[in-house]
Amino acid sequence: MEKLALLGGTPTITDPAPADLFAWPIITDEDEAAALEVIRANKFSGTDITAKFQDEFAAWQGRKYAIAFTNGTMSLSAAMFAIGLGAGDEIICPTKTYWGSVSQAINFRATAVFCNINEMLSIDPDDLERCITPRTKAIVIVHYFAYPADMDRIMEIAKRHNLAVIEDVSHAQGGLYKGKKLGTFGDVAAMSMMSQKSFAAGELGMLVTDDRRIYERAMAYGHYERNNANYITECDDLVPYYHIALGGVKGRANQLCTALARVQLKHYDERCAEIRRAMNYFWDKLEGQPGIRAIRVDESTGSNMAGWYCPHGAYHPEELHGLPVSRFCEAIRAEGFPSWDGGNFCLHTHRFFKDFDFFNEGVPSRIVANDRDVRVDDERCRPSEERYCFSAPWFKHFNKEWIDRYADMFRKVIENHEQLLDADKNAAQGGRWYGTDNA
Ligand SMILES: *Cc1c(COP(=O)(O)O)cnc(C)c1O
After folding, report:
1. Which of 107, 261, 387, 395 has its CA 20 to 30 A from that of 317?
2. Ligand 1: residues whose CB is within 6 Å?
């Protein structure tokens, strides 16, 4: 029996890991040259570099149209406008995600309806069916922590109920579901390319679609005419208005970011493949250990984990004598890796979705235009039903020796977990509101 570091034993890892093992994004001379070119030419607000990136990204994504935005939140807002979200509409979203997936609904006087998640922290199709009412307009699908959502079932449900599907691909750019690229299932996909995401290019967002009308509406939302004076060919109804950004917000990307993104795109698939090789090796080493399961897909099905953004494992306390996940993570941290439990807090537990009065109407804005109080439905995804999970190292390179050491750390805590059983078994799972800032 090895003494756990949390109880005074020797930590598994105290020496620093090689700098490139976790560093992300990978920045080379090529990125620096691209950024310098923008700075020297003073091209921050132009659109020529962005236009090139949009074309390259659309081709890579396998979609007809791509629009760059200031950030992912803005691209998702544009997607909501593009599908025609409006007053009184309901928009379904998994409760465990970053707020940028759905809180914008408030601006449209629409309301978020929260859907439960399954063990893979992915939207639960059974619960999705239960969330649908005559008021439902759209579903936001999040490929959370890079795990591809069950698109076969989701698209079948969406078609049957005539609902628009917005894919939030912020965690899973380039990933596959049964051989088809994530971001090509819904009517429209939008995503963050913020510096810590899988596809990382500073502060940037992208929207992709095959639908010309959605493209034109998304453009009109935050890119007034200067982006491309001739883009309206179908939405005649927008012609009298589109000289002004119709969302009252400006969403044009900074070209320092789109220049970086062009370089990142060239290398992205290859870097993701290396990450998947490393991450699969790590989880293979831990296969069969009690208490934990990898959150990953079987690649033989044609699906994959993209750039494996923010790797997490599912946690089963019942297999470890009820050891709370928070205590498990504490022990891992003491061994030398900053593991945290919970992922994003469930959105429906935040007061923003309970009683925030954005419109100064003396009414919670979430339900201001609704003929029913959707907040009662939040009970369906009670925090107690939050799935237990913990964060794992996000390896960027297949460095066997180091991956072995990290896997040993998890094995050590599991094998010796009985040393920790004095912990309060009722301890709640933690979480955070701002994504994860650990590795
Ligand atoms: C980060 C993120 C967003 C928002 O993107 P920003 O670029 O930070 O505005 C939206 N959805 C998800 C799931 C995210 O992780």
Report:
1. 395
2. 71-73, 97-98, 100-101, 142, 168, 170-171, 192, 194, 205, 435
CB 88 within 8 A of CB 369: yes
Quote the ligand 1 centre to 101 CA distance (angstroms). Answer: 7
Centre of ligand 1 from the C-alpha of residue 74, in Å: 9
Length of the chain measured in residues: 439
- What average pLDDT is seen over the chain? 94
The encoded tokens of residue 282 equal: 């790590």
C-alpha span between 102 and 300 (Å, rounded): 33
Calculate the CA dihedral of residues 167, 172, 176, 182 and round it to 10 degrees: 20
Tell which one of 69, 70, 73 to mutate to probe ligand 1, the residue whose CB is within 8 A of the most ligand atoms.
73
What's the gap in Å between 239 CA and the centre of ligand 1? 31
User: Six-digit token pair at 69?
Assistant: 């935005």
Note the helical H segments in 149-291. 151-160, 212-222, 255-286
pLDDT digits (tens, 9 = 90+) for 150-173: 999 999 999 999 999 999 999 999
- Candidate from 60-74, 104-118, 218-232 with smallest mean pLDDT: 218-232
Residue 345 DSSP one-character state: P
Nearest Cα neighbor of 337 from 276, 403, 422 is: 403
422 Cβ contact partners less than 8 Å away, ≥ 6 residues apart: none
Among 341, 60, 79, CA closest to 192: 79
Report the amino acid identity of residue 214: I
What is the CA(192)–ligand 1 centre distance, in A? 5
Half-sphere CA count of 222, side-chain side, radius 13 A: 25
Q: Where does the pLDDT of residue 229 fall: very low under 50, low under 70, confident under 90, or very high at 90 and above?
A: low
Ligand 1 atom closest to Cα of residue 203: 7
Cβ atoms 414, 316 nearer than 8 A: no
> pLDDT for 400-417, tens place per residue?
999 999 999 999 999 999
Take atom 5 of ligand 1 and give the residue whose Cα is closest: 72
d(CA 409, CA 395): 15
Residue 27 contacts residue 264 (beta carbons within 8 Å): no
